[in-house]
Write a structure and sequence with these properties.
Belongs to the peptidase M16 family. By secondary structure, the chain is an alpha+beta fold. It has 17 helices and 13 strands.
Length: 485
């Protein structure tokens, strides 16, 4: 038996030895490329072209640049404005913008916009909250909502293959909100908790005080209302607020990664049932300037000074100039201009430019934090930054600031969510959208334009607010008088 087994193993062991000597490779290995037989006269036909050289008789198509996305604008059913940027790519983003926000709120509906932000994409008359969440999960989509002073934005980002489906969910969630009392009641506790947390932030509190001091009318309404006033809202109050603001003439639908025809095919049947009408008449906002201070023991002293930025979103040159001025003012958290990379002046521990542009007006200024007892010096340092821009702006500084402004804008609209937001805001304010016009307005600014703009800004009444320790804060008249000196 052993002798028979050895006879069977002997050929295999011989094969192992031949592999070790390199003799069996030709017998067992399979060549990667078959070698043709020699020709009639013994010549080889094997191709010996190096990989670094193109193969003969192989046509390689010339590379072509991708087609620039085409902006399409139009009007949907019931007069709803629409814009779509049919950009290539696997993702899509659709949004619905409702004009209004906190600027159209009254004493009875104070905080409605913020509460609607939290109630977004909850139950509708066609879907439960659970169904909306599961459908968005099924399509790999993400929803969000943000309430501002002049708008409420509903956004869904998903894949291009499900663009029609997510558009239908978006408009159903905006136009057919159920707002059941029990859901509103459950959400109020979360809203109150978040508002209390926001008011403990000195920067956010100073930002709210700026609007309260600077404007009369709708823009003076707080975007972060008193938690006690929000607690009085109900589903009925929200539905009454929506009946005035969620009307066809006050809605804009935008999309990126989807065509206008595709938007229209889905949106028209849903928008046909929307309430007709135009934007509600908000309390007319006027810039007045003023002073407000909030004593907040333990909070980091924060001082902000601001002025009116005239023109608003309706004036493209004014909007572009405000963006360049913001870049010139710099930022303590991320210094973007080479000439600004230096230690902060005097008592300031941080400086943040403030630029808020609305439909017909805006705010421009600076906010800074300081140490305890240095509020007066901080106010002087902040106003000095603005006065310096009014006197002169170097060409090198201006060129760098324009690049920062354009870079920031291009970075914002490079994302689908950013471009749909810019389209929505411009459609509500100007009735059209053009990124090229904005870029041309920034590129065409001169140093004289910037100095003239800042000079006109400083002629408006001063707005000054302070949060934290205010014992050393100077009088409003003293700071305003230094600006005129």
């Amino acid at each position: 038996m052993v002798r028979g087994l050895a006879q069977h193993l002997r050929p295999l062991l011989a094969g192992v030895n031949s592999f070790a000597n390199g003799q069996a490779f030709a017998q067992y290995a399979v060549p990667a490329v078959a070698v043709p037989k020699a020709g009639m006269f013994g010549g080889s036909k094997r191709i010996l072209t190096p990989l670094s050289e193109p193969l003969a008789n192989v046509n390689i198509p010339n590379p072509t640049a991708p087609k620039a996305p085409e902006l399409q604008t139009g009007t949907l059913a019931n007069g709803v404005k629409a814009a779509a940027l049919d950009a290539s790519g696997p993702n899509t983003c659709v949004a619905a913008f409702v004009g209004g926000g906190s600027s159209v709120e009254t004493e009875e509906t104070a905080g409605a916009s913020k509460l609607l932000e939290y109630m977004a994409f909850s139950a509708t008359h066609n879907r439960t909250s659970f169904r909306i969440a599961r459908e968005l999960e099924k399509y790999g989509a993400v929803s969000s909502c943000a309430a501002g002073r002049e708008h409420i934005a509903y956004v869904i980002e998903g894949t291009r293959l499900q663009a029609s489906e997510v558009t239908e969910i978006l408009l159903d969630s905006v136009l057919n909100q159920k707002l059941a009392d029990w859901e509103v009641h459950d959400m109020l506790a979360r809203v109150e908790e978040d508002l209390e947390s926001a008011y403990s932030n000195p920067a956010l509190l100073a930002h709210e005080l700026l609007h309260k001091a600077a404007f009369s009318g709708g823009l003076s309404n707080s975007l972060l209302p008193d938690p006690a006033s929000v607690n009085g809202l109900s589903g009925e109050a929200l539905r009454a607020f929506m009946a005035q603001t969620f009307v066809a003439g006050n809605i804009a639908v935008t999309g990126a990664g989807v065509s206008l025809a595709q938007l229209q095919a889905v949106a028209d049947p849903l928008l046909a049932g929307a309430a007709a009408g135009s934007a509600p008449a908000a309390a007319k906002s006027a810039y007045t300037g003023g002073f407000l201070a909030c004593l907040s023991p333990g909070a980091e002293p924060t001082v902000a000074v601001a002025f009116e930025a005239k023109g608003g979103l309706g004036d493209l040159k004014s909007t572009a100039t405000a963006a360049v001025v913001k870049a010139l003012l710099g930022s303590s958290s991320r210094e973007v201009l080479p000439y600004n990379r230096k230690a902060l002046d005097g008592p300031l521990t941080s400086v943040t430019p403030l630029v808020q542009v609305y439909k017909s007006t805006g705010l421009i200024g600076v906010m800074g934090t300081t140490s305890s007892g240095s509020s007066a010096a901080a106010a002087d340092a902040l106003t000095a930054k603005l006065k310096a821009l009014a006197s002169s702006t170097g060409e090198a500084q201006l060129a760098a600031a324009k690049q920062v402004a354009l870079g920031g804008y291009q970075s914002a609209i490079s994302a689908r969510s950013g471009v749909v937001q810019d389209m929505g805001l411009q459609l509500l304010a100007r009735g059209k959208f053009s990124a090229q016009e904005y870029a041309a307005a920034v590129a065409g600014l001169s140093a004289a334009d910037v100095s003239k703009y800042v000079g006109e800004v400083l002629k408006s009444p001063l707005t000054m607010v302070a949060v934290g320790g205010i014992a050393s804060l100077p009088k409003y008249d003293v700071v305003a008088g230094k600006l005129l000196a």
